[in-house]
Amino acid sequence: MINCIIVDDEPLARQLLTTYIGQLPYLNCMAVCQSAVEAFAVLHQQKVDVIFLDIEMPGITGINFLRSLKAAPKVIFTTAYPNYAVDAFEIEAVDYLLKPITFERFVKAVQKLSANGGEPAGKNSVEPNTHIFLKVDRRLVKANFTDIIYIEAYGDYLKVHTPKRTYITYMTLGKIEQLLPSSNFIRIHRSTVINKSFIKFIEGNFVCVNDINLSIGLTYRDSLLENLG
Q1: In a domain, 139, yes or no
Q2: What is the DSSP string of 83-142?
Q3: DSSP for residue 196
Q4: pTM higher than 0.70 for the full model?
Q5: Residue 167 forms part of a structural domain
Q6: Is the N-terminal amide bond of 100 cis, ω within 30° of 0?
Q7: Does one domain contain both 116 and 156?
Q8: What percent of the chain has pLDDT over 70?
Q9: What range does the domain containing 150 cover?
């Protein structure tokens, strides 16, 4: 397990990084700080392996904050400004992420921790994740993979259907596919992903999922049947 903290004065940036960390079971977010002063207090109380650190913040910049530490943890900078890259790597930053940060780029940065003495981030080194966090209105809502029946595209949003309710979240279908375990979820249409555990039967060009008939796209039928064996 890699213990980490987030240090960023932007609420949306903190929320995004919290969501990304929640998708990686080998990362443990110990604290979310709005300033270097808050982070300084956390570092004196707990053992931190890596800091996801913004650069331009009120009071003290991320780079100056890192230089002030006697025994600094590893750092992955998260910033909207490319002009600090040279300074960042002079102090041996693991990576330098430019906002807006995609999940794919975030994962690549975290994987570099193993090359820098961190815990290996390979699939065999951690327990598989069991859930995903969805941004619903202003909340991050936890949805267990076992509860998700199917997901459908809804304009620029997604409808994530569970037995108790349907969540509407701002995300693409391709993006959420990358966060779901491929052993349980499969796309059956350009606008639909299903949880195989809820399949009752397939008839013609439809699959019955939890008593709901969903259309199978012609280009997805063969891969669906092959996946189901």
Answers
A1: no
A2: GGHHHHHHTT-SEEEESSPPHHHHHHHHHHHHHTTS---SGGGSPPP-EEEEEETTEEEE
A3: G
A4: no
A5: yes
A6: yes
A7: no
A8: 93
A9: 145-228
